[in-house]
Every structure is written in C-alpha cells, then in structure tokens.
Amino acid sequence: MSLYFALCTKKHSLLRQIFTIYRSIPKDGKQAVHRQIPILIRTIGSSPEVISIVLDPPAGSESLLMQVLQTLTDGAVPSQDLISSVKKLYYSKMKDVEILLPVLPFLSKDAILPVFPSIVNLSPDKFQVALARLLQRSPHNNPPLTPSEVLIAIHGIDPEKDGIPLKKVMDACSACFEQRQVFTHQVLAKVLNQLVEQIPLPLLFMRTVIQAIGAFPSLVDFVMEIMSRLISKQIWKYPKLWVGFLKCAIQTKPQSYSVLLQLPAPQLENALNRNPVLKPPLIEHASQPSIRAALPRSTLVVLGLVQESQASGQAQASQSQAAETGSSAADGAQEVTQESASVS
C-alpha cells in the first residue's frame, strides 16, 4: 500500500482508485489508508484530481473525503477551487452539512446563514466543532460570523419552519454561554439590545435573558431596561414569554420591583396571582412614601395599599370637587358679565 501511495504522488489520477475501493476494504486496510492519506494530500495539495474527487466522491468514501478536506484546511487557507467544490458537493449531492465544516472559516456570512439551522441540528460535539470554526480567526481571515451574529442567528431559527427540534436550538444557546471568554457580557448586551427590537420577539428571548443574568450578574441593570422595554411592547400578549418575564422578575428581585410596578394594574394582578411570593416584598417596596406617591391608584388597589371603595370614594370626591370648582367658576363668570352689562 505504501508503494501505491508513493505512485499517487507521481500520478495523481491513481488517487481515485483508493476512494473507489475504500468502502470494500477491511477495517485494518481502512486504518492504513487513514494513516497514509494525510501525507499524500499534503504532498499533492488541491490538484485537479483531488478537486474531481471532491465534486464526485465514490459512494462510501465520505469519511475518507472528510479527512482529505481536514488535511487541506488544517493551518492553511484552501484554494477557491476547493471551497467552491465543497459547496457544490453539498448543494448537489451530499446534503450533509458536516461536509462544510472544514471550509466554514472560509465561507462568507451570506453562504453560512442559509445552512445555519442545519449546523445547529448537528450532534453536540460536532456543533462545538462548527462553532469553533465559525469563530476562527486567522492572520488572513476574519471569522465569518461574530459572536453576536452567531447568537442572533440561533434565535432566528424557527423550529417548526426550519424543522429543527427546539431542544437543539436551546442546546446551541447553552453551548455559547459556556464560552464566556468569547460570548462576553458586552456581546450579550449587544445581542439582547437587537433581539428585543425584533417583531415578533424570538421564542427563546426570555430564556436567553435569564441565562445572561446567570452568567453575568453585572448585567442586571441593563436587563431592567430590557424588561421595561418589554412592558412597552406588552409582553403579556406572548404567553410563553410572559412566563419567562415573570421568572426573570423573581430571579432579579429586588431590582425588578420598580419594573413590576410599571405594569398596568390587570397585568400586575396577574403577575402576583401567578407568583404570590412577589407580593409581600413588592408591597413593602411600594409603601415607601416617595414611591407610593408616584403610583397610580389602580396599582395601589392591586397591592392592597388602598381599598377599592376608598379609591372609588376619593375619585368621587375629586369629581365633586372638580364640579364645584367648575360651578364656582361659572358663577364668577356670570357675575362679571352682569357687572359689565351694568357698566354699559
């Protein structure tokens, strides 16, 4: 076999025969091929014969082809012929996104995003490989995606439309959070700031907010701003996200008390009914004179700081006072008119 590989370095066309018989040779023979092939490929590089095999690999030689591609891209920038050939292979014959992994660092963002759901659908260990290659930086290339673009792309996956299990999407998010040196608190703040403006909000948005707080507690003030913006977007109209919003409020108390008090009275009541543990400390917080003075009566009623009948009575008293004020003003105006008439 060593002799045949030596001949391949002189006559590249012999290489295809190795791929053709690969599926039928015994296990020991395959192992020998895998030991020899990197040496051969490093010698001949992306020759026309290699490109020909990439475009049309014999059936059953997929694992050998992967080793060839890994060898050609390991520590080196592959030729454009090789990159385009791998893309053609993926789109025309081998609909397995794994074949793209060796050339991922050299693809454009526009080429990666359409296949990104399939990348997320890889097994956890292969997704980790893909993630590392997507973020790979070299002296000659910037990474095809920034960390923030990776997270935003993950949140852009629609499990039903893209046919990707929700758990796979969740696992992909978690894999990013494990790399805190890459997915820093600055990256997460940028991502959340963009995601909160999406319509509709991403399904996993609140889960990511909670994960961000868990990974970087220093983000709590920023997250309070995000939650305030969610109230303006009527987060309660999205049942699954509303549950996550309330869970986040529990995890970020006491900072979240001021946010909860921004809720309209019906939604605040719903929140407290769902999570009774929030009510006593929220009442204590709202009872502070400076805070209580700024709260609408409907909120005070929900908190039990004002009785509904009392609030109603006070409202009626205010209306009566306003009516009396209006009546007095009218009488005064009439007197002025009469005096003016007398003077005339």
Q: Alpha-carbon distance between the termini? A: 127 Å
User: What is Rg?
Assistant: 33 Å
Average pLDDT reading: 88
Unreliable segments of 5+ consecutive residues: 315-344
Q: What's the total count of β strands? A: 0
Percent of residues in helices comes to: 55-70%
In what range is the share of β-strand residues? under 5%
**Which descriptor suits the 3D outline?**
rod-shaped
Q: Structural class, judged by helices and strands?
A: mainly alpha
Give, in order, the helices and strands. HHHHHHHHHHHHHHHHHHHHHH
Describe the biggest sheet? none
The number of helices is: 22
Characterise this structure.
- Helices cover 67% and strands 0% of the residues.
- With 344 residues, it is mostly helical.
- It has a domain at 1-105.
- Helix 9 (124-134) crosses helix 12, helix 10 (147-155) runs parallel beside helix 13 and helix 18 (265-274) packs parallel to helix 21 (297-303).
- The longest helix is centred in the last third of the chain and has 36 residues, at 308-343.
- The radius of gyration is 33 Å and the shape is rod-shaped.
- It starts with a helix and ends with a helix.
- Residues 96-273 form the Symplekin C-terminal domain.
- Residues 314-344 are annotated as: Disordered.
- InterPro entries: Symplekin_C.
- Pfam families: Symplekin_C (PF12295).
